[in-house]
Design a protein that fits this description.
With 132 residues, the chain is mostly helical. The protein is 79% helix and 0% strand. The longest helix has 23 residues, at 2-24. The protein is globular and about 45 Å long.
């Protein structure tokens, strides 16, 4: 029982922190300051910041996220945060961040095991940022 209560508290903590990140907004003129705050809040929520997300190989990133035992909604929220960040990042980082966002959304799709039209739209939007 203690383990379940701890898991529920941990999931609620992650939910609250991801929600607060989504509420921060993304204003291009203030992106550097917001980016530092975003990086800090992601580290608090997931023990991994935006810098690490951008610099880690995809396999290692997904291993870290899998070890957190995230739920569908957590993957979607993280994907949404990254998707909003792509256009504000330096052009040379956009494609890689989009690839990782796409991978996170696809993982969310696998975790949910149901079809979601809105998730499919987000996957397509992330794909549009990838340079072929």
């Amino acid at each position: 029982m203690l383990n379940k209560n701890y898991r529920d508290e941990e999931k609620e903590r992650i939910d609250e922190q991801l929600r607060s990140i989504m509420e921060m907004g993304h204003i291009p003129e203030e992106w550097e300051e917001i980016r530092l705050n975003l990086d800090r809040k992601l580290k608090e929520a997931l023990s991994i910041g935006l810098n690490e997300i951008e610099n880690l190989p995809e396999e290692k990133l997904m291993e870290i996220l899998a070890n957190l035992d995230l739920e569908f909604s957590h993957y979607v929220a993280l994907g949404d945060i990254l998707l909003k960040s792509i256009e504000l990042e330096a052009e040379e980082k956009q494609g890689d961040l989009a690839q990782k966002t796409l991978l996170i959304y696809k993982t969310a799709q696998e975790v949910s095991r149901t079809f979601s039209f809105s998730l499919t739209q987000k996957i397509n939007e992330a794909r549009s940022w990838i340079n072929d």
